[in-house]
Structures are given as C-alpha cells and as structure tokens.
Amino acid sequence: MRNPYPARVAAVIAGCLLPTAAALVTACSSPHVVPVNTPDTATVEERELAILRQRPDIATAVARYERLLTALRDTLSARLHWGQWDRGAEMRENSLPRSCAPEFSAIDGNRVPLPLWYTASPDITSPQWTVARDLVTDIAARQGFRRGRVASDEPGKYTISLIDDDGALLSLNAFRNAVLALTTGCHLSNQHAPFSR
C-alpha cells in the first residue's frame, strides 16, 4: 500500500535529524568504564576491546533493539490508536554499519542505524504527545535507556531522545506523523569473545 503522506513524512524526518544528531554526539562523548582487570599498561586498543567485550555482539544488540521498537510501536498504537506503522528503510541515509570513531577509534566496532518506523497518523495533539513521551520513556527505561532529554514539547516539534548504557540512541519525533528511530551504540561483531555482563 502506498503511503499517502510521503512529503509530510520526509519533512518530519528532516526536522528530527538535528536533535537526534546532537543527542548522538552526547552519547558518543560519554565516559566509558574500563574493566577493573585491565592493566594500567594496556594499549588504547586493549582498553577499548575490554570495554566492548562487556557488551553483547552487534547481532544480539540489533535483535534486542528490534524487539524494543516492536514493543514501543505496539504500545503506542494500542494506547493512542495511531494505526499502522511503516518501516522506512529507504529514508535512513547510510543504514549500513558505521565506524565507532571517535568514541572507539582503535577497534573495528559497529554502530548500526536501524530503519525508521513511522505512522501516518492525523496531527498529533499535545495530550497525545504527553502520553506517547511518557510511554516511550517508561518502556525504554526498562531496557536501559536512562539518560536523555525531551528536546521539545512544543506543538509541531515534539522530540525526545534517550540513550542507553551502551550508547544506543532512541528517538521519538512527532507532529503529523510519529517517527521512531534507533541507532545502536558501538558493538563488536560476534567473532570476538562473548560479553561478560
């Protein structure tokens, strides 16, 4: 089925990218805890590898985040009757895995922008936004998204960005459409030793 709102969706997505990018810079600049058993003489590569080995591999992380996005879409649709969500893979620039530099510059880790999800709902009202913002914050907090901020509660510019302990960035932007976006933090491929969390 063809989306009757492509121009509006593109406009909403374009308006959401700046706050999301700002939150991602904040996430990437957050300090990392080097494991206790890492020697003081360890190289930068060894320190980064020690940090990333505490995290799940990229495939496990992507699967976990996909489940979170499904739970968010289902809950928002059930509570707010926003209708069907569409996956907008073609709207995400460079959806291939990205380098983790400058956050992790010595290790070949992966950061993956997942495809956007959007709904062609009617104009989103202030009361709907308040419910959506609170639902997303509560559900995401249970999955480790405890840092973040509401970038805007202003009608027409509704935006919230949340960051988890591994540096993943989740955002919900809404005006005429609701748009969910998630970019993973830095993770190793499954060829590295398993994480020990």
Descriptive account of the structure:
This protein is α+β, with helices and mostly antiparallel strands and about 200 residues long. The chain has one domain: 2-Layer Sandwich (TBP-like), CATH 3.30.2030.20. The protein is about 35% helix and about 20% strand. It is built from four helices and six strands, in the order H-H-H-E-E-H-E-E-E-E. The chain has helices spanning about 5-30, 45-50, 60-80, 125-140, and strands spanning about 85-90, 115-120, 145-150, 160-165, 170-175, 180-185. The chain has a six-stranded antiparallel β-sheet with strand order 1-2-6-5-4-3, sandwiched between helices. Strand 4 and strand 5 form a beta hairpin. Helix 3 (about 60-80) runs antiparallel to helix 4. The longest helix is centred in the first third of the chain and has 23 residues, at about 5-30. It starts with 5 loop residues before the first helix and ends in a 14-residue tail after the last strand. The relative contact order is 0.24.
Summary?
With 197 residues, this protein is an alpha+beta fold. The chain is built from four helices and six strands.
- By oligomeric state, this entry counts as single chain
The CATH class designation is Alpha Beta
- Main sheet: strands, sense, barrel: 6 strands, antiparallel
**Structural class per helix/strand content?**
alpha+beta
Quote the CATH topology: TBP-like
Let me know the average pLDDT.
Answer: 78
How do the strands of the widest beta sheet line up side by side?
1-2-6-5-4-3
Strand portion: 15-25%
Q: What is the rounded distance between the termini? A: 43 Å
**How would you sum up the global shape?**
elongated
